[in-house]
Amino acid sequence: MLMAHPAVLRNLIEQYETLKVLHAEAGSAEVRRRMDDVAYTLCVSTGTRDVDAALIAARHRLPGARPQDDSLLSV
């Protein structure tokens, strides 16, 4: 499987988290569509099927990630 560059993963994580906040505040359909697009890209980039798993996988591929990080336990 091809692996996304860490800079791409970091950007996708930041985009998703920003869009998630915007969606929680405004709830617009446009923000939701963009959030879904970024979630899909994260899933494809990490070889996962849901955005929560994709976020965990992406974070573990970033420089400085440690196996003992509790990000697998976060909600």
Nutshell version of this structure?
With 75 residues, this protein is mainly α. The chain is built from 3 helices and no strands.
Description:
The N and C termini lie far apart (27 Å). This protein has helices spanning 6-26, 29-46, 51-60. It is mostly helical. It comes from Streptomyces achmelvichensis. This is DUF5133 domain-containing protein.
Lay out the secondary structure.
Blueprint: H1 6-26, H2 29-46, H3 51-60
Helix pairs in contact: 1-2, 2-3
The whole-angstrom Rg is 13 Å
Pattern of helices and strands: HHH
Low-pLDDT runs: none
How far apart are the first and last residues' alpha carbons, in Å? 27 Å
Helix content: 55-70%
Number of strands: 0
Assign the structural class, choosing from mainly alpha, mainly beta, alpha/beta, alpha+beta, or little secondary structure: mainly alpha
Quaternary arrangement of the chains shown? single chain
The main β sheet shows up as: none
Outline: elongated
Number of domains: 1
Strand content: under 5%
Instruction: Give the helix tally.
Output: 3
- What value does the average pLDDT take? 86
Protein name: DUF5133 domain-containing protein
